[in-house]
Amino acid sequence: MATTEKGRRTRQRIIEATGEQILAAGIGGTTLETVRAATLTSKSQLFHYFPGGKTELVREVAVWEGEQLLAAQEPEIHDLGSWGSWRRWRDGLVDYYLGQGRWACPIGSLATEAAAADPDTASLITTSMTAWKDALAAGVRRMQEAGEVDPDADADLLATGMVAALQGGIVLSQPERSGRPLEAVLDQILDPLLVRATARAGSSRA
Length: 206
Prior knowledge:
9 helices; TetR_C; Tetracycline Repressor, domain 2; single chain; transcription; Homeodomain-like_sf; mainly alpha; 77% helix
């Protein structure tokens, strides 16, 4: 366990390097040996910071990636009360995934393998995904309260569809090494809200 600032920095460096390896090679392709080589740490150091070995390390990566994902959407993820905020949220996600050359979603990549391999890691990922969906649903509700979106729209269902569509867009962007699929999906994500907004406006005029 890290008790000094230097130790905390070293521990965090190991987590981040492991996250990059998992993103590139998956959990199965990431070993303590490859982590040691990437971080120039000894076996004793690794087990000092992560007594549970690879399993504990992967879980820490899952927590960190979840925090990074939500942080990348700040401050808009806690606003989303206007169309401008939704568009800025969209642009921020493009920058997060593509501006950093991340051709995969860290959380999505972890979820694919962890769901079958480690229920505890899967639970951590579910917590991150749920927090993400809840924040989006809250944004939809703000738009409903502002009269911008049909109040009968199911905010939770829309939020689930947004996250699912986003993950699909990232998968399509990976082999193409192009941001176009992701950007197209993000634009389409806003369409259901716009449809609800149009329906709301049409109802008001009737």
